[in-house]
């Protein structure tokens, strides 16, 4: 058998490659376009719960992106109390394979990829579904993905006001300080959900709840707002979907009935959100198959569960940039 080598990018290498905001958005958008064109395979994520789901679980995401020539599997742990050990709540590894032979082509630390691709999905949803003159962002949650939500949304909208809230005061204060340093603008830290999201143009709910609790009230949502709930446990009222003119998801296969977790899981199980009243998958909009926002009066919801194809797209972008910079290790597999 011929020698088989694969490229390994550890965390420091991924940080050195330092994809720009535009590079992140372009990679994830290309993956969405491929999905909309029918050039991807997305398997619904699988979950492994070692002991207690309240402590955390593993997500296993699997996919294939034909234009990139990769099949990929990402395993990401999501453990809420990791901060007590000085660890991110989410740690991940991405394996990329040759889809014709099954040969391992690359292995990457995917912790930052997970954060970046989530933020990019939120921001790209806004690009196609939020009002162009959106100026106020209300963001619930301060976990790793939250930073990229705010950073990439601000990159597109240059908000006049950014409000943030999370359960722990020390967490939201630290989150605001980092954003202020990196974005160069004042961040408003709120003590409660209502003052964070009421009348905001864009509302992102990325909370970490131990069990479903409707803390985000429908009455706080401004008409014509763009709302992105994606916490693992639902934090929204059942009535939220009643005020929406359009509801969009990243992949209906991961949102349909019978699957665990997700911000709109109660809405799917009770037929508040169905395949029939779903407007589109975001990839269909990116590919021009379905319209996005059509006027400034529409109130629109976007629920994204996380796409393997976004991990693969960012992994590909990092590998190419690392190669240009002479970074990464070649490891003999066989």
Main attributes?
9 helices; NAD(P)-bd_dom_sf; alpha/beta; 15 strands; 334 residues; ODC_Mu_crystall; seven-stranded mixed sheet; 2 domains; Rossmann fold; ornithine cyclodeaminase, domain 1
Characterization of the model:
With 334 residues, the chain is an alpha/beta fold. It has two domains: 5-113 and 309-332, ornithine cyclodeaminase, domain 1; 128-306, NAD(P)-binding Rossmann-like Domain (Rossmann fold). The chain has nine helices and 15 strands. It has helices spanning 11-17, 21-36, 111-129, 144-157, 169-183, 193-197, 265-269, 282-286, 308-325; strands at residues 5-9, 40-48, 56-65, 70-79, 90-97, 104-109, 136-140, 161-165, 188-189, 202-205, 226-229, 246-249, 280-281, 300-303, 329-332. It has an eight-stranded parallel sheet. A seven-stranded mixed sheet has the order 2-3-4-5-6-1-15. Helix 7 (265-269) links the parallel strand 12 (246-249) and strand 13 (280-281). Helix 1 crosses helix 9 (308-325), helix 3 crosses helix 9 and helix 4 runs parallel beside helix 5 (169-183). The N and C termini lie close together (8 Å). The mean pLDDT is 95. Pfam families: OCD_Mu_crystall. This is Ornithine cyclodeaminase family protein. InterPro entries: NAD(P)-bd_dom_sf, ODC_Mu_crystall, ODC_N. Belongs to the ornithine cyclodeaminase/mu-crystallin family.
Itemize the secondary structure elements and their pairings.
Blueprint: E1 5-9, H1 11-17, H2 21-36, E2 40-48, E3 56-65, E4 70-79, E5 90-97, E6 104-109, H3 111-129, E7 136-140, H4 144-157, E8 161-165, H5 169-183, E9 188-189, H6 193-197, E10 202-205, E11 226-229, E12 246-249, H7 265-269, E13 280-281, H8 282-286, E14 300-303, H9 308-325, E15 329-332
Parallel strand pairs: 1-6, 7-8, 7-10, 8-9, 10-11, 11-14, 12-13, 12-14
Antiparallel strand pairs: 1-15, 2-3, 3-4, 4-5, 5-6
Helix pairs in contact: 1-9, 2-3, 2-9, 3-4, 3-9, 4-5
Pfam families: OCD_Mu_crystall
Protein name: Ornithine cyclodeaminase family protein
InterPro entries: NAD(P)-bd_dom_sf (IPR036291), ODC_Mu_crystall (IPR003462), ODC_N (IPR023401)
